[in-house]
Amino acid sequence: MAPISVFSAVAMLFQRNAVHAALLLIVNFFTLAVFFLILGSPFLFVVQIIVYAGAIMVLFLFVIMLLGVDRHESLVEHLRGLRPAALVLAAGLVAEIVLAVRLGVGVATKAAPNFDQVANKGGNVHAFAKVLFNSFFFPFEVTSVLLIVAAVAAMVMTRQAIETSPPGPPGIGPGDTERGPAGVPETVA
Question: What is the reported pLDDT for 72?
Answer without folding.
Answer: 58
